[in-house]
C-alpha cells in the first residue's frame, strides 16, 4: 500500500472528536488482534474512560498519525512519566514509558521513527528524561527496538486462561 499524505498531531483525549476516537480504537483493535487473535479488547467506552482518568502522580501525552483529511488513523504514540507527586519520583524522574503502534499496511515507511522523534522532542523539553522503556509483545516491535539499538533489560511470561477453553472434565 502506498503511503498517503499524513500528519502527526497531538491527541488530546479531553477535546478529541468522537470520530477520531473511533478511528483510534479501530487501529488499537487491529494491533490488539495481531498479538491476541483469540482474545477481545476491553469495551471502547471503558478504554476511553481509562484514557481520560487523570492521575496527579503521572503525566501522559499522546500523538496520532492520520491521513491528511483525518480519514484514517494509521499510527499512535503514547508516553507517560512520573510527576513530582509520585512517591518514587526521585528514582524514576529520568524514565518515561512509551507505547507506539503503526497499522500493518503502513509499516516500514519510517512512520514509527517519525513518531519516536515527536516523543523525544517532547521529552527533551523536560530536561530530565534520559531513558524510554516499552513493553514489547510482537516481533515487529522487537525488530524496531533492535533497529534503534534498544537494549532488552527484562523478560517475563504472561499466562492467559480463556474460560471457553477449559476442559472441566
Give a written overview of the molecule:
A five-stranded mixed β-sheet has the order 1-2-3-4-5, sandwiched between helices. The protein is 32% helix and 21% strand. The chain starts with 5 loop residues before the first strand and ends in a 22-residue tail after the last helix. The chain is an alpha+beta fold. 15% of the residues are buried. It is globular and about 60 Å long. The model has no long low-confidence stretch (mean pLDDT 89). It has helices at 18-35, 44-52, 89-92, 111-124, 139-147, and strands at 6-10, 58-67, 73-82, 95-102, 131-133. A hairpin with a 5-residue loop joins strand 2 (58-67) and strand 3 (73-82). It has one domain: 3-Layer(aba) Sandwich (Aminopeptidase).
Helix content: 25-40%
Runs in which pLDDT lies below 50 for 5 or more consecutive residues are none
Structural class: alpha+beta
CATH H-level superfamily: Gcn5-related N-acetyltransferase (GNAT)
N-to-C span? 48 Å
Our count of domains comes out at: 1
Q: How do you describe this structure in short?
A:
32% of the residues lie in helices and 21% in strands. The chain is α+β, with helices and mostly antiparallel strands and 169 residues long. The protein has a five-stranded mixed beta sheet with strand order 1-2-3-4-5, sandwiched between helices.
Please specify the SSE layout and strand pairing.
Blueprint: E1 6-10, H1 18-35, H2 44-52, E2 58-67, E3 73-82, H3 89-92, E4 95-102, H4 111-124, E5 131-133, H5 139-147
Parallel strand pairs: 4-5
Antiparallel strand pairs: 1-2, 2-3, 3-4
Amino acid at each position: 500500500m502506498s503511503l498517503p499524505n499524513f500528519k502527526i498531531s497531538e491527541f488530546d483525549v479531553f477535546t478529541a472528536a468522537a470520530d477520531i476516537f473511533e478511528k483510534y480504537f479501530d487501529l488499537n483493535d487491529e494491533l490488539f488482534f495481531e498479538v491476541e487473535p483469540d482474545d477481545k479488547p476491553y469495551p471502547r467506552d471503558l478504554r476511553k474512560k481509562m484514557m481520560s482518568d487523570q492521575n496527579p502522580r503521572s503525566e501522559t501525552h499522546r500523538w496520532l498519525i492520520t491521513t491528511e483529511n483525518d480519514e484514517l488513523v494509521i499510527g499512535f504514540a503514547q508516553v507517560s512519566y512520573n510527576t513530582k507527586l509520585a512517591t518514587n519520583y526521585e528514582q524514576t524522574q529520568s524514565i518515561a514509558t512509551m507505547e507506539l503502534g503503526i497499522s500493518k499496511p503502513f509499516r516500514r515507511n519510517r512512520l514509527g521513527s517519525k513518531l519516536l522523534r515527536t516523543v523525544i522532542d517532547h521529552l527533551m523539553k523536560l530536561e530530565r528524561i534520559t531513558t524510554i522503556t516499552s513493553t514489547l509483545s510482537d516481533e515487529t516491535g522487537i525488530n524496531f527496538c533492535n533497529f534503534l539499538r534498544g537494549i532488552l533489560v527484562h523478560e517475563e511470561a504472561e499466562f492467559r486462561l480463556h474460560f471457553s477453553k477449559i476442559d472441566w472434565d
